[in-house]
Amino acid sequence: MIDWEEPNGEGCIVSDRITKDGWKVGYMFRETPLDNQPDSGWHFYKGDESDEYSNNPDNFHVFALNTICNYDEDIIPYLHLPVGTRLIRAGNGIFIEDDGSREIVFDRQ
């Protein structure tokens, strides 16, 4: 679904709330990719995961970006944004910068 040519690879970390529970991405952020790993730096969450949930590594898995795009095509236009990007779903397939002033819109796949 995407043509990923960035140097580190297309791996990403994804919450089970997306891959197992059927929710679309509500919150996404990009960190510096890990060296010598197929890591894009992207992390995808539903957006309401508690600290307890988020602190359990069994609730997150590594996938290829293309796989997650099959779960939620709305993320595709944002994937080449730089490290440090933090976005929330604002509705109608649109994501905006997370400045803390708006609620995440939750949507089912």
Core attributes:
109 residues, alpha+beta, globular, single chain, six-stranded mixed β-sheet, 3 helices
- Spans of at least 5 consecutive residues whose pLDDT stays below 50 are none
Principal-axis shape = globular
Give the end-to-end Cα distance, rounded to a whole number of Å: 17 Å
- Considering DSSP H and I runs of 4 or more, what fraction of the residues is helical? 10-25%
- Alpha carbon gyration radius: 13 Å
Total count of strands: 6
Report the mean per-residue pLDDT as an integer.
94
**Domain tally:** 1
Q: Describe the oligomeric state of these chains in a short phrase.
A: single chain
Helix/sheet category: alpha+beta
Strand content: 25-35%
Order of helices and strands: EHEEHEHEE
The strand order across the widest sheet is: 4-1-3-2-5-6
Largest sheet composition:
6 strands, mixed
Number of helices: 3
What does it look like?
- With 109 residues, the chain is α+β, with helices and mostly antiparallel strands.
- It has one domain (11-94).
- 14% of the residues lie in helices and 28% in strands.
- It has helices spanning 16-19, 51-54, 65-71; strands at 11-15, 27-30, 39-45, 60-64, 86-91, 94-97.
- Strands 4-1-3-2-5-6 form a six-stranded mixed β-sheet.
- The longest helix is centred in the middle third of the chain and has 7 residues, at 65-71.
- The protein starts with 10 loop residues before the first strand and ends in a 12-residue tail after the last strand.
- The mean pLDDT is 94.
